[in-house]
Structure formats: C-alpha cells, structure tokens
Amino acid sequence: MKFSSLALCFALLAAPLAAAQKKALFLGNSYTAQSAHYIKEVFKRENTGYEPHFLTPGGKDLMFHLKDGKSRQKLASAKWNVVVIQEQSQKAGLPGSFAKSFHDGANGLCAAIKKQGAKPCFFMTWGRRDGDKRNAHVFPDFLTMHGKLSGAYEKAAKDNDALLAPVGRAFAIIHQQDKELFKSLYKGDGSHPSAQGGYMAACVFYGVLTEKSPTKIRWNANLDAKTAATLRNAAAKALLKAEVEE
Predict the structure, then answer these.
(1) How far is residue 68's CA from residue 56's CA, in Å, rounded to a whole number?
(2) Could you give the C-alpha distances from 210 to 215, 216, 219, 227, 236, in angstroms and in order?
(3) Rounded-to-integer distance, Cα 184 and Cα 180, Å
(4) What pLDDT, on the 0 to 100 scale, is given for residue 245?
(5) Measured between alpha carbons, how far is 234 from 231 in angstroms, rounded to an integer?
(6) pTM listed for this prediction
(7) What CATH fold (topology level) applies to the domain 22-245?
(8) At 36, phi and psi to the nearest 5?
(9) What is the mean pLDDT of residues 3-25?
C-alpha cells in the first residue's frame, strides 16, 4: 500500500513536467546548423521547457523548405509548439525576384505551420562581417546588409503574425559597441557564426521562447565570463528594442 501511494505521488509529480515539455522545430540552413549546438545546450541547461529539433540542409531557402518533401514530412511529424524558419543568408535583403521568393516562401511556410497548430518564428540573420562581395552594389558593408535583412524579416513577421528572433539586431549592437568582439562573432569566412555568434543566437532564442531576459542565462559556453555577459546583454537589448517597435 505504501509503495502504491509513493508511486502515485511520483507519477503526479512527473506528469506536470512531461506536460510542460514543448517542441521547437528549426527549418534553416548552415547558419541554423552552426548555431544548433548552442541552442541545444542553452535550452537544456537553462530549463527552457523546449525540446529543439533541426532540419538544416546547407544553402537552402524558405521556398525550398515550403516545397521539399522531407521538410513538409518533418513539419507534419509532431505536434510542434514553435517552428523557426530561416532564409538563405542573402536573399531576404536582395531586390526583385529574390525578395518575392523570400516573402512567398515566408507566407507559404507560415500558413503551413499554423495549419499544424504551431506558432511560426523568423530567425533574423545577420549581415556579413564585411558586406557581400558577390552583391557589393546592394550589400557594400555590414550595416547596409543588416538594415536590408532586418527590414525584410520584420515585415515578414508582421505580415504573418509570427514571432521574430532578432539575432541580426544583436550582431548590430555588438558592432556598435565593440568592433573587435564583433569580428569574433564570425568564422574566418566572415559569414557563418563562430562560437560567440552561435552562443548569442541561442541567447536570443532563449529570450523569445521563454519570454525571460537572456541576462538570466548562467552557462557561458566556455567563453570568458565578461564576453559571455556582453553577448547576453546584447541579446537582451535586441529583444527589448523589438518590443518597443511592436
């Protein structure tokens, strides 16, 4: 009798924990893939209540995920609470057919995500460290590229009543505050996120999905304490600015 009562108590205690666990799906490309380790660790170590899953084929865009069989199958495979979507790193800020593809892909994916009962969330990416040499007339430097990308993501999030994870805005805050730390956010190609960049991205997602300040995160990701704190503060400022603009 005592054993049955004890087992019942444990079952009652465990039930709320199981019910509280939510699922987040990330559909993106190498930018999301190279931030995934830090997202997983922050979500696990900081008890966010979210279980993250990833589908991140390199170089792909939103239109790819909208049409791809594996992406659609993954979207239909579970009852997701949030689905994070990330465009190819240049297309959202480019004009003409690229902009149309971004917004068409965004609208289509958001509709599919909502049909599954989940909330869509845009992963606002960052301008490249030195601009984009392939599209120098459009993206001559980081700030110009950031401005075009952020504007496109903000519009897509507003049009689709979606969440927005302003990771690019956090990059811009570090750019303003500390140029050397800003450079360290990138790997050697000046495009993909380093450990610092990936960690800051994870801090932004923590704030968006938990609605808590990233400054509450305790894990430093093997970075020195001062750097980690600066990155968390930038993530918090990026989110605060997003709330003001809404």
Answers:
(1) 12
(2) 12, 11, 16, 23, 12
(3) 7
(4) 55
(5) 5
(6) 0.91
(7) Rossmann fold (3.40.50)
(8) -60, -40
(9) 58
